Every structure is written in structure tokens, then in C-alpha cells.
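Inputs:
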Amino acid sequence: MSETKVEGQQHPLAMYFWVWGLLFVLSTLSYLVDYLQFQGYLRWTLILIFMFLKAGFIVAVFMHLYYERLAMACAILIPTGALMVLISLMSFEAGYTNETREVYLDGGPGLMIMEESTK
Amino acid sequence: MANEAVVEDTRRSIAMVEGLEGVVADWSSDQRAFKRVVWGKAMMWIFLLSDTFIFTCFLTSYMTVRMSTTVPWPNPSEVFALTLFGEHIPLLLIAIMTFILISSSGTMAMAVKFGYEKNREMTTFLLVVTALFGASFVGMQAFEWTKLIIDEGVRPWGNPMGAAQFGASFFMITAFHGTHVTIGVIFLLIMARKVWKGYLEDRKPGFFTSRRGGYEVIEIMGLYWHFVDLVWVFIFALFYLW
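Outputs:
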């Protein structure tokens, strides 16, 4: 019977060193994005790519989620993925708030139109 | 044939009972969703999931205030720059903090491995190293806060560099993360002592050590520590680099 087997993750040491090194490289790359002053969409894309790669390696290898049963990975990753709904809703909301502020605050075009119409 | 009998037997044992009796039956019917993990590990994952939601709330509200303000956001690259040997290096301290936390994750992962191998010396050593990395991270954060509050005049309600929401977002997010690191350091040290003393083998009564098996608690504690590193990856990218 395999009942006596310890329920834990055992992997070769080399794997951890590889991922460790990889995380160092990815962190250096994301730091370079700032150091070399990349701007605009290039900057944001690179930041997000390096961020998700680092997060993926930490979760998959250091936290062993890749080696767990799929049922477990689903229980963790699906609710996390659902957070994208919150993030996108709030980004629409923030965009709208910004727009109204641009139009109506500090002498924006909206104010002038309002003043015109009340004359 | 024997297999079928077992399946049939299992079916009968988890038959649906209604009412209060059903509640008891459901909770005690020996069903197990998360296989090949001890319950403590599954529960740590559930806790980390809830923590993910909290950190996402903070980071999402940061996104909301940053996107919606019409006042320019202070440039983090400049705000967190350090002048070292007469040279102006952007984000230097934050980069060092990032590398320190990643290294602590590496030593933690190896502590888990040596724990399962029942190598007490190496496990204790690696846990202490992880704790030291964590403590130095918190120390640098304290330095960063001091510099920001005293030299740069950043307050939760305003700052001289730009949008007032900068301070509120910064203090809220980094304080919550720093608290996690601090709690992690304390637990790492407690655990290191337990491993060193051999409590996990003796099943000594106390925090985490009274159960059979023992060394999976290192992996569970490791999950928490890696999560702290994981959150920093997101803070580093979204707050400091964006």
C-alpha cells in the first residue's frame, strides 16, 4: 500500500536553482525597462509580460501548483481569474470619472458650455 | 468485480440524507476533494486565495484613483531613486528589495526540500536565512518610508510631487505587504526553532507540531512565504514600474 507515503512535494534541487536564476533574470529585465526609460505601450507590455512570467514561475514551481491535481489548481486559479471582471469594471469606471473631470473640472470645456447656457 | 463492489459500497456510504442528519452526514462522510495534499495545505491555499482578493482590492483601487485623477502622478522612478557614490540611480532600493525577496523564496523552496529529507541542520539553516532576508526587506522598507515621509514630504493626503492619491495608495499597499512579511519572518523563526529542536519528529504538542507527519508544515509555511514574494512581484510591476 502506498498509504504510508508522505504527501508532499519532492523535486530535484537543480529545478529550484534554475527557477531562482530565471526569476533573477526576469527581475533584471523588468528593472531595465525603467532604467532604459522605455515609455508608452512598449513599457506597459514589457512590465506585464515580465510580471506574469515571474508570477507564473513562483506559483507553478516554488508553490508546486503545477504538480498538484487539476481540481486543486482550478479551485485556486478560477476565482483568481474572476478578479479580471472587477479589474475591468473598475477600469471602465475610472476612465469615465477621468473623462468627466477633464470636461468639468478646472476650466474644462464643459464648464464653459454650462456658463453659456445659463446666461 | 471486486472493484465494482467497492464502488457500490462507497456510493451507499455517501448516500444523500436530508435535514440536519444530512448536514452531519455530508460533513462527516469521508469525502475528499483535494487529493494528494494534506488538509493544512489545502486550507493554506484557500487562505492565500482570500488574501489574493484583499490585495487585488488594494491594487484595483490604486488603479482606479491613478486612472481617474487629472493631476499628474508622481514619477515613481524619480521618487524612489537613490544617490549612491554621487550617482543618481532610479529605483535602486526597490530593485535590491526585489532581489532579496526572490532570494528568500529560493532558500524557502530549498528548506521545504531538505525538510522532507529530514535534514534538520540544512532546513533550520535555510529557514533562518529566509527569515534574515525577510527581516532585511522590512528594514529597507522602513528606510524607504522614512525617506519618503521626512525627506520627500509624502503624506496619505498629499505630497509635493503630484496627485494626492499617491501617498494613500503607497502607504496602504506597502504597509499591508510589509505586515505580511513581518508575520512571515516571525513564523519562520518559530518554525526554525521547532525544526532545530526536533519537535516535528517527536510530535511535541504545540503550534503545528502535534500532528503526525511533521515536515509538510514547512511546505505550508513555504506557500505563505512564496505568496508574499508573489504579491511583491505585482506591487513592483504595477506600483513602482508602471
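Remarks. Chain A touches chain B through 56 residues (CB under 8 Å). Residues 73 and 79 of chain A are 10 Å apart (CA to CA).
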